[in-house]
Every structure is written in C-alpha cells, then in structure tokens.
C-alpha cells in the first residue's frame, strides 16, 4: 500500500484512504456509526488478554477498534473478499497494532463436510458481498479457501467471537462447538434465511448459555455473554 494518508479516525484507530471510502462512509467511521452496533458490542465484551476470532472483517475497523482499545492477547480475523485484505492490513499498520491482530483471506466453516474452497460473490461496493449468489446485482465470483472452525479453535482457542458474515451465521451456529467462548457479537441477516432462521440463531446462542446484553444489542446485532 503506497498511500497511507489517513481518511478517518475511529476510537483511536486510523483508517487510511482506500477505494472503498467515500465522504459518507468516512463521516460514519469518524462518528463510530459505521458498524456502530458491532463496535459498541466489541468494546463492551472484549477484555485484556482475550483471544478474539473475527469472522467477516469488512473494512477492518471493528476488529481493529477492539485490538487498539481493549488490549486482547490476539485478534485473528478472516475476510473472504481478497480485494479488502491489503487495505485491512494497511489499517492495522497505520494504527500500530500488527502485533495484536492479523487478517487471513479464508472462510471459516463449522460444518463437518465443508469443501476446500467456496465461491464468494464480490459486489462493487463491497457491502453485501456474500457466499450467497445474488439474484439481480452483478458480482465477481472468486474462489476462496476455507478453514475449519475446529482448526481455528485448536490454533486460537477463542474467548470472544465477532461475527458479520452476511448470512452464513446460521450454518455456522448449527455446527460450531462454542466451548470456551465467553462472549459473542453477531449480526443476523434474516434476508438470507428468514425470520425463523434468525430466531434459530438466537435460540442456539441461548441454549449454549449466552445472555443478551440489552444495553448494546438490537434486533439484528446481538452482544451476548455467558454468565460467570
């Protein structure tokens, strides 16, 4: 990345200019309203010494805010869109947090029969890019390698999960062993699996012992923790 000039600052995290930023998005980042519910949730639950798994980095802001402000032991982030990864890494470098957070261009899958690669559909604006093929909007299909959640657990042993994977959360929760995970911040996407699918996501979390934090949760973004 050659251009390291800073476009916005969010909770101390410096966000360099990139093709994915416009004036509206920059203003939202500056006001902590871009992914604001996820940021609020991450700041509420991540503690010093935590090991954080982030699935769906987006622009990299949410994981970086957690790494910069809460001093976790490690944040390991996964982003399926290969075009975003260099810009995410530039953000980490600009904020001086490369020793605490890293991003990989992989898709985390919990299902036991997960394929070695999956097709990810990249939209021009990056928002809405998904494993689900769009019916109308044009997108660029790219093949992305997968990694099993079991392998990630063996490497990271996560205590916190931050999850924004554009509809993939239902399949993940159906198969994931959340043993050892203390807190989850998750965005639901009922457009991908309906209201009943969203209710199933919430039931799975509740059955696993997670309790919603009403102060920083909404209908579509839950921050929840296990009772200690």
TrEMBL record:
Top-level taxonomic group: Bacteria
Keywords on record: Methyltransferase, Transferase
GO molecular function: methyltransferase activity
Biological processes per GO annotation: methylation
Protein name as it appears in the record: Methyltransferase, FkbM family
Domain Methyltransferase FkbM: start-end pairs: 73-210
The organism of origin for this protein: Roseivivax lentus
InterPro entries: FkbM_mtfrase (IPR006342), SAM-dependent_MTases_sf (IPR029063)
Pfam families assigned: Methyltransf_21
